Amino acid sequence: MSTSVYDSPVFHMACHQFDLVADFLEIPESLRDRLKMPRRALTVSIPVRRDDGTTTVFTGYRVQHHLTLGPTKGGIRFHPDVTMGEVAALAMWMSWKCALTGLPYGGAKGGVCCDPSQLSIGELERLTRRYTQELIPFIGPQLDVPAPDMGTNEQVMAWIMDTYSLQIGHCVPGVVTGKPVGLGGSLGRRESTGRGVAYLISRAMDTLGIRAEGATAVVQGYGNVGSVAASSLAKQGVKILAVSDAYGGIHNAAGLDLQALNTYVAQTKSVVGFPGAEPVSNAELLLIPCDVLIPAALERQITGENASKIQCRILAEGANGPTTPEADLILEQRPEIFLIPDILCNSGGVIVSYFEWVQDLQSFFWGEGEVMDKLYRILEQAFNQTLQLHRKRAVSMRFAALSLGIKRVWEAKQTRGLYP
């Protein structure tokens, strides 16, 4: 099947990963396109009236990868580099992630090609509501449930919920997750991805016999995921040596004061210029010697050029697709590096999004302790299953995680059959 509409390095990367696993699982060629290609892909034009009276037309996307196990689930990102191919790749990875963790979802992803930092609050709201209006026939609690991603947040989800509810005629909190708690959001949702990353790093440390007290970590991408993961690790005694964001990075060999850093970031909106630390580029940051390296920024950060140079014991992929296939080949020849692959490492967000969706459908809400306990139980099971397959079949942790997720979707499609 032609993939031209999704043509992008990220989508080709996701397809390459799938093809390797499909060979390993011996999935018949006749079924591979059905598993790989998205079920639906939507492109919309979004005219937005600017504060100065002019109108700008933005382009938005939504991709639903498969609907075999339930409604689709996936974030919405507002970013200047959003493309159809990127969104399709992220939707595919979300499918394998949901299947790996046992959630009754297919994968989805959406995005608008824009720079939210260049939009006023009013413009951002008008953009969000018009984008939602275009998606009305394709989203819903039993069809497709969006969530926050890069460039979006609780407020954006509240606007989506309100726009959808006004069209339907009654309040529908289950149409999105990642909402404010007062509108049906779940306690612990905002912190869930970062806490999940930290939990799995702790499990990897246990596996490798590394003590958290005195261990070191480097975080590329000090946003919601990276900052929460760093704070969670610091509470366990891990020293955070360096962090970065889209504007640059900072490094202190003695460890960063995260409490002071978080206060600084809240004031300046960036880590750059933080007192008591040396500047470092995002590229240089990846090569700093450490026990734990957490790429929690964009895709394709660890490549064939730098994979042989990174110096860590644990590579924890907080971002989606941060490691290219070329880098994977190099990492497979470096057994001293323990990989926690993205579809496992950052799955905490979609797991707690699932909890939020369940709570909204029941109109019965849980305490934060209950949410976190359920999250860690699911992560523990997924980690153990992935580790077991990794050891049993002598394959990489990424290969093991993808195999588990893809196999479950494949088996579900086989059992349901093909209509008509």
Automatic annotation (TrEMBL):
Keywords: NAD, Nucleotide-binding, Oxidoreductase. Substrate binds at K73, K97, S353. GO terms for molecular function: glutamate dehydrogenase (NAD+) activity; nucleotide binding. The record marks D149 as: Important for catalysis. The active site is at K109. Pfam families: ELFV_dehydrog, ELFV_dehydrog_N. NAD(+) binds at T193, N224. SUPFAM superfamilies: Aminoacid dehydrogenase-like, N-terminal domain, NAD(P)-binding Rossmann-fold domains. Transmembrane segments: none annotated. The keyword Zinc does not apply. Signal peptide: none annotated. GO terms for biological process: L-glutamate catabolic process. Gene3D superfamilies: Leucine Dehydrogenase, chain A, domain 1, NAD(P)-binding Rossmann-like Domain. SMART domains: ELFV_dehydrog. Residues 186-417 form the Glutamate/phenylalanine/leucine/valine/L-tryptophan dehydrogenase C-terminal domain. This is Glutamate dehydrogenase. It comes from Prosthecobacter dejongeii. The lineage of its organism: Bacteria, Pseudomonadati, Verrucomicrobiota, Verrucomicrobiia, Verrucomicrobiales.
